[in-house]
Amino acid sequence: MVYHLLLCTLAVIFDVLSACRVAPDEKDFQIALLRQQIRVLERNTKTKPRLTRPEKLMLVTLTTRLQAQTRRWRQRLRDVVLLVQPETVLKWHRELVRRKWTFRRPNHGGRPKLDWEIEALILRIAGENPRMGYDKIQSELLKLGFVVDPTTVKNVLRRHRLMPAPQRGRTTWRTFLTHYRQQMLACDFFTVETLHLQTLYVLFFIELGSRRVRLAGCTTNPDNTWLTQQARQLVWQLDESGAPMRFLIHDRDSKFTPSFDRVFVSEGIEIVRTPFRAPRANAVAERWVRSVRHECLDHLLILNQRHLMRVLKEYIDYYNVARPHQGLDQQAPIPIPRSPQGAIRCRDVLGGILHDYYRDAA
Fold first, then answer.
1. What SS3 state is found at 353?
2. Contacts for 142 with CB less than 8 Å, ≥ 6 apart
3. How far apart are CA 267 and CA 238, in angstroms?
4. pLDDT tens digits for range 326-350
5. Mean of pLDDT values over 292-301
6. DSSP helix/strand/coil, 360
């Protein structure tokens, strides 16, 4: 294959040189053009033959000489060139001219590239101060010893798709909830089936800021009287612990009666009801239900209500004190000082279903 292409290239070069050296006769160029096309058509290809660059160069050279010999060169070109259209040959010629005048422009310098440390500092200041404009960011950099133009600050923020100060400073729902999550409390019900297929309803509360879980109780009949009593007991616990709560989130279940809400309203806690069929609106409580089922209840057979209360209390003690949480930087809701040295011990939780690892005090 390579040998065949080499012969074709040599033949093209020979035809071009011979056509250019002979007397300026139109028939000589026509013969050279036809000879080259016959050579291309003699290839044993099932598809349309494709011209190589030397073959294209020859067609362009011969058609240019043909144009110089006759005024009706376009008609002659249509009569002689059979493989391609005349416009294609002209396009090849324009491509050759473009390649001739295309060259690498020298680098005349320009503004030096911004140091990555300064760029990272600009992004940090803009992220921590969403209402700070380009000039203010420049002034903060100037205090730190970095001389940067406000236009450079603008280009850096645009390159990282950060909006200007008015748009970047808008408060989102996530930011709004972050400010008040330490004062938010959520509650919900979930059911547990005992060994004898008795349905037990469990009421729990969880603090959105610390993720601390408070077990209210479980019953087979969550009526208005029982639910109101659990609300009063929780309010007493919050007063004793000194945890100021301003909002309580729960769904629109009919078990949450008006008297249940009035207990919290009397203590200055606002009730926030989630939309219909929107479990993600109370996502923290829903996620805890998944945790208690996956880590505890799915591995046990609950005998009765007393057994369920004992199991849940032990799991909640482990959850609040010893279980690391990704949302709290791998800390527990109620952090307890632990010794960084000493022998490693393991405490079985729920009969070995869970394990708590710790070190002996030095």
1. coil
2. 148
3. 10
4. 877 788 888 777 777 778 888 889 8
5. 93
6. coil
Q: Would you say residue 67 has pLDDT above 70?
A: no
d(CA 21, CA 29): 11
Residues 264 and 348: their CA atoms lie apart, in Å, by: 37
Q: How far is CA 176 from CA 96, 148, 171, in A?
A: 63, 33, 7
* Beta carbons of 200 and 220 less than 8 angstroms apart: yes
Query: 49 phi and psi, to 5 degrees?
Result: -65, 140
Provide the total of helices (H) and of strands (E) in the chain, helices listed first.
14, 7
Instruction: Identify the H or E element spanning 294.
Output: helix 283-295
Per-residue pLDDT tens digits for 256-293: 999 999 999 999 999 989 888 888 888 899 999 999 99
Q: Which amino acid is it at 3?
A: Y
User: What is the amino acid identity at position 182?
Assistant: Q
| Residue 3: band (very low, low, confident or very high) from pLDDT cuts 50, 70, 90 | very low
In the chain, helix, strand, coil percent, each to 5? 50, 15, 35
DSSP 194-261: -TT--EEEEEEEEETTT--EEEEEEES---HHHHHHHHHHHHHHHHHHT----EEEE---TTS-HHHH
Q: How many CB atoms within 10 Å of residue 28?
A: 19
